[in-house]
Amino acid sequence: MADDLTENYRGAFDGSLGFGKAPALILVDFVEAYFNTESPFYAGVEAALVSALRIRDAARAAGIPVIYTNVVYQPGGADGGVFYRKLPALRVFDAGSPLGGWPKGLDPGDGEVVLTKQYPSAFFGTDLNKLLTEQDVDTLIITGVTTSGCIRATCVDAMSYGFIPIVVADACGDRHERPHEANLFDMQSKYADVVDESVVLNHLSDH
User: Fold this and answer.
1) Dihedral, CA atoms, 134, 58, 114, 187, nearest 10 degrees?
2) Domain region containing 134
3) Given 150, 164, 171, 192, which residue is catalytic?
4) Is residue 2 one of the residues assigned to a domain?
5) What mean pLDDT is reported for the chain?
6) CATH number reported for the structural domain that contains residue 78 in this entry
7) Where are the alpha helices (DSSP H) in 10-151?
8) How far apart, in whole angstroms, are the C-alpha atoms of residue 26 and residue 46?
9) Is residue 50 part of a domain?
10) Nearest to residue 123, comparing CAs of 89, 161, 85, 174?
11) Per residue in 98-135, pLDDT tens?
12) In a domain? residue 131
């Protein structure tokens, strides 16, 4: 089946982008809701966080921008629109909820930007596009959760705004392997370069 799918896409969806000259790293929504087993969004993505933290250390050493996102709603979700209506479990991100906090090991450093969002894409309703443009960034290294949701939305918007999306497969996670793998395949085919952690670490060590 995999071979049939690859062959079906060959010639139409098999391009590559490569890294640009000026990357930034984003860690999308690595918050307690995805790591606390009592949360409806628990996803078992601990390995993805460990991978993302290794990349963050390399990004810091390379001196490239490091950006985090979290999700916060007004209590009751008045600022969450249709998304909040579609997913009532998003109430775990109402302001003040401990499930919106950072997991152990992920404390933003001095000079690292935290963007708060209410919708899937890290670009929608935030200053991410402006922030990257002002720093002459041309490549966005994308890590975080979840692959089929906020990662995919951020990837598509990054490409749409003219940034090269580099999606790190090891450093992204989803609550089930099938949507994770399907969306990695689709992003690689149409929007981004999907690479392993080692590729990013090697690139940053030479940056």
Assistant:
1) 80
2) 21-205
3) 150
4) no
5) 96
6) 3.40.50.850
7) 46-62, 81-86, 128-134
8) 17
9) yes
10) 161
11) 999 999 999 999 999 999 999 999 999 999 999 999 99
12) yes
Q: Determine the 3-state secondary structure of 49 from DSSP.
A: helix
pTM of the model: 0.95
At 134-191, the pLDDT tens digits run 999 999 999 999 999 999 999 999 999 999 999 999 999 999 999 999 999 999 999 9
Report DSSP letters for 12-26, one per residue.
TS-------SSEEEE
Q: Whole-angstrom Cα distance, residue 164 to residue 24?
A: 10
Annotated catalytic residue 150:
yes
Tokens of 158: 């990054």
Q: How many domains does the chain have?
A: 1
**C-alpha–C-alpha distance, residues 159 and 28, integer Å:** 16
| CA pair distance 165, 191, nearest whole angstrom | 7
Nearest in space to 26 (alpha carbons), one of 61, 56, 49, 46: 56
